[in-house]
Design goal:
347 residues; two-stranded antiparallel ribbon; 20% strand; alpha/beta
Length: 347
């Protein structure tokens, strides 16, 4: 079973783990590095490949998009045909079954799941929209900058471990749920302000902490508050323009504020600055804001950074680490990460 993959130094089982990670989070099939796994693959190994991917119990229970699974198997079949490798009966059987059931691959709202394997042998499962824009918002899927921020956190764990953390613009919750699982924060508040996003975010938090104890909270903006043993995790509906009316201070005095892909529209700059100012006020200007951005428009990002400088914030550009646990297309757009602080004496 430890046959070396052709022209590679990686053995089959190690390559299989990497391919599974890419499959679970639906990395585009043509971007998957197979590490030679499909070359001279035996029937037993083909069966194991299916067990790790399309027949994975996690995928059976929380399916990734059927179209993606079909493309994944089609690629395997095409490659094996090209290599004149005999194909396992289950390979075609699963492919045909997916084709027949493709129409039932999403729920009524058009959602599927993605699964992110993270350090510590844990997995984040997220319900996401199949559409780029859904119900009038783009917040129902995970974005590139969120994945890059998770990689950054892995390399800077001590800046987040055990802290009180507020996330602005949580979307479906990838970054926040990762922080809750990996960093063991004392308190974590995930926030957004669109009803569809808040509902999906709440479902994802509950899905990833099924053993967490629900805690009563009389703040009507808190959709859920969970004690997972290591941390308190809250989902909160926060409109940045009215954050000072949210009674956020009753839940948290943030030591770290995080945000990913929230700087993309000039119309959001003023309310976002209001929210940042409020968070820093709660911490007496002692917190740090970690901002991860996809630089789609250099002028837009530059304008926001200038706005922060004018408001007497200090900006330090951080290292963007290569994708390892969270895969994204680094060629599509530049990711930039900033640590933002403020003079403690600022009034």
């Amino acid at each position: 079973m430890f046959q070396k993959c052709k022209n590679k130094t990686m053995n089959f089982d190690d390559a299989l783990v990497l391919v599974r990670r890419n499959f679970l989070c639906c990395l585009p099939v043509l971007q998957i590095d197979w590490h030679g796994l499909l070359d001279d693959i035996s029937w037993e190994q083909q069966e194991k490949l299916l067990e790790y991917t399309v027949n994975n119990p996690l995928v059976v229970r929380y399916p990734v998009k059927f179209g993606y699974q079909i493309a994944f198997l089609k690629h395997i079949i095409h490659h094996l045909n090209k290599m004149n490798v005999e194909q396992h009966d289950q390979l075609y059987g699963k492919y045909c079954a997916l084709l027949n059931n493709q129409c039932g691959s999403t729920d009524q709202a058009g959602f599927n799941y993605k699964h992110y394997e993270i350090p510590g042998n844990d997995v984040i499962t997220l319900k996401e929209s199949s559409a780029f824009i859904s119900d009038g918002t783009a917040g129902l899927c995970s974005w590139q900058a969120s994945k890059a921020l998770c990689e950054f956190i892995i390399h800077n764990l001590e800046d987040f471990r055990g802290k009180n953390i507020l996330e602005l613009g949580s979307g479906v919750g990838l970054t926040g749920i990762f922080i809750a699982k990996y960093c063991e924060p004392s308190m974590l508040v995930l926030s957004d302000c669109h009803n569809s996003v808040i509902n999906t975010l709440k479902q994802n938090v509950e899905l990833n902490f099924p053993k967490g104890a629900k805690v009563d909270c009389d703040n009507p903006l808190v959709s859920c508050l969970i004690d997972n043993g290591d941390s308190l995790v809250a989902v909160m509906d926060i409109d940045w323009s009215y954050i000072n009316e949210s009674n956020l201070h009753q839940l948290i005095e943030p030591e770290v504020v995080v945000g990913a892909d929230i700087v993309y529209d000039h119309s959001l700059f003023e309310p976002l600055l209001i929210a940042i100012n409020y968070a820093f006020t709660l911490s007496n200007n002692k917190c740090k804001f970690v901002l991860s951005c996809t630089e789609r428009n250099q002028d837009t990002l530059s304008d926001f950074l200038e706005l922060l400088i004018t408001a007497r914030y200090r900006i330090n550009e951080e290292t963007v680490y290569a994708s390892k646990h969270f895969q994204w297309d680094s060629t599509s757009a530049k990711i930039r990460i900033f640590s933002i602080t403020r003079d403690w004496s600022f009034q």
